[in-house]
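Handout for the seminar on molecular recognition.
Each group receives one record of this type.
Step one: identify the two inputs.
Step two: read the structure output and locate the region that could contact zinc ion.
Step three: write two sentences on what you found, then compare them with the reference statements printed after the record.
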Amino acid sequence: MSVELLINVTPSETRVALVENGVLQEVHLERERNRGIVGNIYLGKVSRVLPGMQAAFVNIGMEKAAFLHASDIIFHEEYGEEIAEQRSLQTRDIRDLVREGQYILVQVVKDPLGTKGARLTTDITLPSRYLVFMPDSSHVGVSQRIEDEAERERLKGIVEQYCSDQGGFIIRTAAEGVGEDELKQDTIFLSKLWAKLVKKKKKTRKEGIIYQDLNLAYRILRDFVGAELEQIRIDSKLTYQQLHAFTEEFVPELTERMSYYPGERPIFDLFNVETEIQKALERKVELKSGGYLIIDQTEAMTTIDVNTGAFVGHRALEETIFNTNIEATQAIARQLRLRNLGGIIIIDFIDMQSEDHRRRVLNGLELALHRDRAKTNINGFSALGLVEMTRKRTRESLEHILCDECVVCKGRGSLKTVETVCFEILREIVRVNRAYDADKFVVYSAPSVSEALLNDEFHSLGELELFIGKQIKVQSESLYTQEQFDVVMM
Ligand SMILES: [Zn+2]
């Protein structure tokens, strides 16, 4: 298996494609505009203490002073008992907690908005893929969302071994089922990162940024620690240099596999990545055998319908159906990753009589999902013959990141037919004619509707003119969508 990352960088957007054996499997993207500063860590200087509000303004080197409330100068409950007594700090006066001119390490919890500055906490946390690092703590906590008691113990046991006196960890929900080696890599990464941050803080003499939450390209590399990545190509010289420095420090084994891509062709033309992304937004997915999938994403779940292609001979039917379903398992696994579909997924395979075939299709699906880094769970065939499965939601789906609801059909996915719209227009003319006294009417409608009114529905229109005794003009409006029209009185 050859695994490659392509990183496409523009000032406004970073996109990462994961390609396995020449086939696009995952797309990650981040837009600069949506990034904000939440998670950033600053050395701040207390500029004013406001006893009335039990808060302080802190200068973090941005235009607007940031806001630190007394209640945000606290410690995590997970910090353990030795710190717990200090929680009485909460009830103390802001004037006892900070003083003007004091330098403190703060982290942004809320982006600045309009006239408001950023909101801060002194409760610093550093997240990685599976863990959150908490300096000043020696405690290991487990996310409440990991419910299995044995799994909680296992995770805790592993992470405790790698705790240092530098800090403690919270084990994130994403860590469920993750192996020791990956967790260990995460603890090493975070400890190194914290050490670097402390060093920077010591050298810093005035207010300003100490640590910026990793952008997408860094996060991806961090998350691929220990993975069998063969090549990483980056189409921006600057980003390449930054990532090179980053991996040298944190993920040395990746450094030599990284290269700058100065190619003539856009990097996402390699392996047809750009085309594949477009295709991943369509409902229909073609299978090589001639069959196809129809994928529908709704609020509650995703449904995938498997279909055979053209007519298949009777004798070969059972075998053809089986083969198409098997092929579909591969395609489904890929689409789930590529589109990043999470939550409940219902698959309607083509009906199979043979119990053996059904079992083998389930096995095939399980096998195909094996490379997915998101956790999946297959429930098997339901009473109605549908396969129910779940896939852990991680980021938003590709469609939700890239698309808005269609303004023409408002997400319905279909349009009223030309004929339906024509009849609506005719009814509207009758209604308006009853209510108002007009000399004549002009109908503005989409070209397809106007054309139908003047051709297929010409007789209906003519009869209506006679019936109301008034002239009706039809005007084509090229910017109108098929369902849109206006009836104007003259
Ligand atoms: Zn639509």
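Reference statements: The CA atoms of residues 227 and 254 lie 9 Å apart. Residues 75-85 have pLDDT under 50 and may be disordered.
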